[in-house]
Specification:
The protein has about 260 residues and is α+β, with helices and mostly antiparallel strands. It has a domain at about 30-140 and about 215-230. Helix content is about 40%, strand content about 15%. The chain has helices at about 10-20, 85-95, 105-165, 180-200; strands at about 35-40, 50-60, 65-75, 80-85, 225-230. A five-stranded mixed beta sheet has the order 1-5-2-3-4, sandwiched between helices. Helix 3 (about 105-165) crosses helix 4.
Length: about 260
């Protein structure tokens, strides 16, 4: 496994190509919105459907704070969707998927059952997105609070240092200054004292003046994909559903990596 920064040129190029394929229309794209694969029979005794969605959180200043691909899955039993609550199990099923497609008759059955399970799968994906978003917001809020405290501590120390220097006796060399230079020296001292009296460091952090980029994170919607894992005993799949399966305001896409 190789980890690369999101702003690395190669990663940026890959993301541009991916987005172009995700939003391509007219059937000319090389990515499928839904696919199907087989998994070992001991992992599941019923078809599994997995959906993916991209989660991006941006801060108050529009900077990207977090990005990841979410996955949720569930079993298809008697034409109904039953959520798999363990994220680890869903990822294990995805890792176990091979490159072999199920037989055409299995693909047809999964396509026929898709309208029955799509609403439940969509709601499950939205719930997972809210859960992950709430968790990230708490972490970012804790981090913002810590950074605000660190900044305030630095400003307080700076204030004490300035006040300590200002309280020292005037240097003897000051008598060598010209009247204009002594007047400028006095103005400089008053300018240093004024901010401490009017705006103590404890009031300089927060949303006023310089808001933290971690405050008020947002999660704009992004395209999603569906995934049908099915055991080899009863054949696991990713199948292309009928047209019109997209949720309002977003597309779905199969992003096989």
């Amino acid at each position: 496994m190789v980890l690369a920064h999101l702003n690395y040129p190669l990663v940026q190029r890959a993301l541009r190509l991916l987005r172009a394929e995700v939003w391509r229309t007219g059937g000319a794209g090389r990515l499928h919105r839904v696919t199907a694969r087989l998994i070992p029979g001991h992992l599941a005794d019923t078809p599994i459907v997995v959906a993916h969605a991209r989660l991006v959180m941006t801060g108050a200043l529009g900077h990207r704070l977090h990005e990841e691909v979410l996955e949720v899955g569930g079993e298809i039993r008697e034409g109904r969707f039953s959520r798999i609550r363990s994220v680890g199990k869903v990822r294990a099923l995805l890792r176990a998927a091979g490159d072999e497609l199920p037989p055409p008759d299995v693909l047809a059955r999964l396509q026929a059952v898709w309208p029955n399970i799509e609403p439940s799968l969509q709601r499950t994906l939205e719930v997972r997105g809210r859960e992950r978003t709430d968790s990230l917001r708490k972490k970012l809020a804790d981090r913002a609070q810590k950074e605000a405290g660190d900044i305030e501590a630095i400003l307080l120390e700076l204030q004490r240092t300035i006040e300590r220097e200002l309280s020292d006796p005037e240097p003897v060399q000051l008598s060598l200054f010209s009247p204009t230079e002594r007047e400028q020296y006095s103005r400089n001292q008053n300018a240093l004292r004024a901010p401490s009296a009017k705006n103590p460091p404890g009031n300089r952090t927060g949303d006023r003046g310089h808001p933290s980029p971690l405050r008020r994170p947002r999660t704009p919607p992004f395209p999603r994909r569906r995934h049908f894992p099915r055991s080899q005993r009863s054949k696991m799949t990713h199948v292309k559903p009928p047209l019109g399966d997209h949720s309002p305001g977003c597309k779905s896409a199969s992003l096989r990596g």
